[in-house]
Amino acid sequence: MKCEHCTRKECSKKTKTDDQENASVDVPSPAQENGEKGEFHKLADAKIFLSDCLACDSCVSAEERIQVSQQNAKDFFQVLNLNKKCDTSKHKVLAVSVCPQSLPYFAAKFSLSVTDASRRLCGFLKSLGVHYVFDTTIAADFSILESQKEFVRRFRQHNEEEPALPMLTSACPGWVRYAERVLGHPVTPHLCTAKSPQQIMGSLVKDYFARRQNLSPDKIFHVIVAPCYDKKLEALQEDVPMASRGSRGTDCVLTSGEIAQMMEQSDVSVRDAALDTLFGDVKEEELRRHDGAGSDGYLAHIFRHAAKELFNEDVGEVTYRALRNKDFQEVTLEKSGEVLLRFAAAYGFRNIQNVVLKLKKGKFPYHFVEVLACAGGCLNGRGQAQTADGRTDKALLQKMKGIYADIPVQLPEASTHVQELYQEWLDGTDSPRVQEALHTAYQGPGQPTDSRDIKW
Question: If you average pLDDT over residues 131-142, what whole number do you get?
């Protein structure tokens, strides 16, 4: 069976039935091993399917396949059960971080406001035994701010002999995995080096928050709630450089759909609760988002910043122009008939193919491209808003878009917490710790893949 998400000559994605037999891994809880049912055994029966992951089998090693399939509710509930039964010295502090694109899913699915949905979700997780529930928006702040600085630097350094442009975003793990494992050079040098929000959140929880709580990073079990399955793959590569050696920033990723299934199957009594902050604030903060229709809005934020920094132009509302389709859009800054900046948004692998082919041919007109593997952006991640037969639930997705659009937008520069963290956690905005904590390097597959080998 061939699919649009393939990255090799032939797609090796399995059917849902095959996945149930081959891709899910059942790890019995200690209670079940002793012949008794664990307290959460019903909720732990949910399985994940590799066919739902945008990075298909050709990008995933056998070892990774096993590790990804272990990132399910059963893994999460094992820690909860151990906390209830084992010696307190072996307990883990459970911290859950929720992506902002997941909250509209819970709001739309359970017919709640986004604020009530966040409080219901937080209350549910804490009723299970989770200690802290965070919002990952602050991590996206860091990722966007570092991406802004990097684009301006690349623009000023760009020349024909050593091209630094275009800059391609690095927040989407499906796209980054494809670029690293399949494309390699000449694409990977154009990837922004800023870490993704998930990677940065891992460092915030396992390094900054751990030190605030006087905890060893290995005493924290960190779970991310995300819209897509590719973030499970991303978690396998997340080391925290400033924490203890080998500490993984995210121990488990659960999709919004997996959490919703747990909520629907649970008979645990739930009291709504406010989201926590990394700073221990008692006051509940207003939910906010970035300026993107269905994602974190890297294009809009970087475009405004670059226009001001490079050309002293103030840009208000960013105007998108659809080109090939609604998921390939262009934004330009023009002055006196001259195009100063040309940005694009390319969502979905069909549009990514077009970007890659033009880049390889040296006929690429854009300075910057926001690349996302999911058509429609992160709200349309395969871990949420799916019907029983695996298709997009269009009615639910439309509700999610409206809910997401109503969340107030705040510029990353306006976050006082981010500015405090730059000083308190990273020793300033230009310190070596910033490079260590907020940036990464990419490795290609060794030899570039001929574009003719790619089937879409």
Answer: 95
